[in-house]
Write a structure and sequence with these properties.
Layout lengths: L10 H6 L16 H29 L18
Length: about 80
């Protein structure tokens, strides 16, 4: 008569099966052309900012070459 189900740790999950509906939700509203253009421009702006930050930061990330300059003061020349 009744099938025995496996125990479920949370009772509300087991009871949720009783209230399932066969009604489908309405379709999603499509984005307008202006919204699509705006989101595309926003995405391009974010990508351009990341690329720009990477290009500007590359010199700081590169290993330093021998840029140490030996400076002599005029006072030490006569010694």
């Amino acid at each position: 008569m009744f099938r025995r189900r496996e125990p479920v740790p949370f009772a509300f999950i087991a009871e949720a099966e009783k209230f399932r509906s066969n009604v489908t939700p309405p379709p999603r509203e499509r984005a307008s052309k202006g919204q699509r253009v705006g989101s595309t421009l926003m995405g391009l702006t974010v990508v351009a900012g990341l690329v720009g930050a990477l290009l500007i930061g590359m010199p700081a990330l590169s290993p330093e070459q021998s840029t140490v300059q030996h400076q002599k003061s005029e006072a030490s020349e006569g010694r």
